[in-house]
């Protein structure tokens, strides 16, 4: 009955509201029962409900019985600093010294206050330092998130720089390709037009010669042949000149970037986890548990 709403000691009814907790019996009690517990021959320690509600439930649930033998724990082994029962003494603590009664150990520990003072110091020290460490971890989480965002932004910036650089190189090579294309296109177009003109003239002269051969006089035919021979010689000379001339073309020679892409741009950087100690100012050395003997 962790909430202490009902008295666990009343024999009359189960509906009586508890107002306190008996630390000796480990039960919640009503006002009448608490008065009875306080007036026993060996008075029990009764704690008001307002106080007990502030205590951790785990401390209120501490059993008076041994976990191994389910017997009432009445002894304290100083050698092992452990609360035990009679069976524990016979089984696993038969050679231990000294073994005192739990009442004596508790009275000694409470009266001398050594164990409590030591525990209070440890709790204060650890609480202070754990709070400091907690604040450090919170700040570290903020720092980690900031680093993550900063590094991702940095990687994006590097990528954008590469893209901008590639775009610039692309624009430059496109311009160069256009210029080289226009240069070659002009040269080839001129020779093409010249060949077209030669071909057209030759075709015309073939028809002329064929017609004149059947219809004109011998003198006119002879004169025409001589004229066409001269023109054919000129045309043939032009064709041979074109045939012997170089024909320009454009050729792309990719940079090493294409063939060695993975090598030249292996990555955009690397990320690693660095671990280091964060000193805590004022962290005392571990306290040794004080024996209640």
Helix content: 55-70%
Low-confidence stretches: none
- Biggest sheet descriptor: 3 strands, antiparallel
Sheet with the most strands: spatial strand order: 2-1-3
Shape: rod-shaped
Mean pLDDT equals: 87
Instruction: Tell me the fraction of residues in β-strands, as a range.
Output: 5-15%
| Helix/strand order, N-terminal first | EEHEHHEEHEHHHHH
Give the CA-CA distance, first to last residue: 34 Å
Quickly count the domains: 3
Task: Tell me how many strands there are.
Answer: 6
Report the C-alpha radius of gyration, rounded.
54 Å
What structural class should be given to the helix and strand makeup?
Answer: mainly alpha
Oligomer: single chain
**Total number of helical segments?**
9
What is the gist of this entry?
This protein is mainly α and about 290 residues long. It has three domains: about 1-60, 30s Ribosomal Protein S14, Chain N; about 65-110, Double Stranded RNA Binding Domain, CATH 3.30.160; about 125-265. It contains nine helices and six strands.
What does this molecule look like?
This protein has 293 residues and is mainly alpha-helical. The protein has 3 domains: 62 residues, 30s Ribosomal Protein S14, Chain N; 49 residues, 2-Layer Sandwich (Double Stranded RNA Binding Domain); 142 residues. Helices cover 58% and strands 6% of the residues. A 3-stranded antiparallel sheet has the order 2-1-3. A 3-stranded antiparallel sheet has the order 5-4-6. A hairpin with a 4-residue loop joins strand 4 and strand 5. Helix 6 runs antiparallel to helix 7. The protein is rod-shaped, with a radius of gyration of 54 Å. The protein starts with 19 loop residues before the first strand and ends in a 29-residue tail after the last helix. The relative contact order is 0.08.
């Amino acid at each position: 009955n962790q909430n202490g709403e009902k008295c666990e000691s009343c024999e009359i009814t189960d509906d009586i509201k508890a107002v306190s907790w008996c630390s000796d019996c480990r039960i919640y009690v009503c006002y009448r029962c608490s008065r009875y517990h306080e007036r026993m021959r060996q008075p029990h320690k009764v704690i008001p409900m307002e106080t007990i509600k502030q205590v951790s439930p785990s401390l209120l649930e501490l059993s008076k019985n041994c976990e191994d033998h389910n017997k009432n724990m009445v002894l304290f082994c100083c050698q092992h600093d452990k609360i035990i029962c009679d069976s524990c003494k016979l089984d696993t603590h038969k050679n231990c010294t000294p073994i005192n009664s739990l009442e004596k150990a508790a009275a000694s520990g409470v009266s001398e206050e050594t164990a409590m003072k030591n525990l209070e110091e440890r709790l204060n020290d650890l609480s202070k330092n754990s709070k400091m460490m907690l604040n450090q971890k919170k700040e570290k989480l903020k720092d980690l998130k900031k680093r993550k965002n900063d590094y991702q932004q940095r990687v994006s910036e590097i990528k954008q720089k590469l893209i901008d650089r590639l775009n610039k190189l692309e624009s430059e090579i496109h311009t160069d390709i256009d210029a080289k294309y226009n240069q070659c296109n002009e040269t080839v177009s001129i020779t093409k037009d010249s060949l077209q003109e030669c071909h057209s003239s030759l075709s015309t002269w073939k028809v002329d010669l064929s017609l004149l051969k059947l219809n004109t006089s011998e003198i006119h035919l002879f004169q025409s042949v001589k004229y066409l021979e001269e023109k054919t010689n000129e045309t043939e000379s032009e064709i041979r000149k074109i045939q012997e001339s170089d024909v320009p073309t454009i050729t792309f020679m990719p940079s090493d970037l294409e063939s060695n892409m993975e090598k030249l741009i292996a990555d955009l950087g690397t990320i690693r986890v660095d671990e280091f100690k964060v000193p805590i100012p004022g962290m005392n050395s571990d306290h040794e548990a004080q024996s209640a003997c």
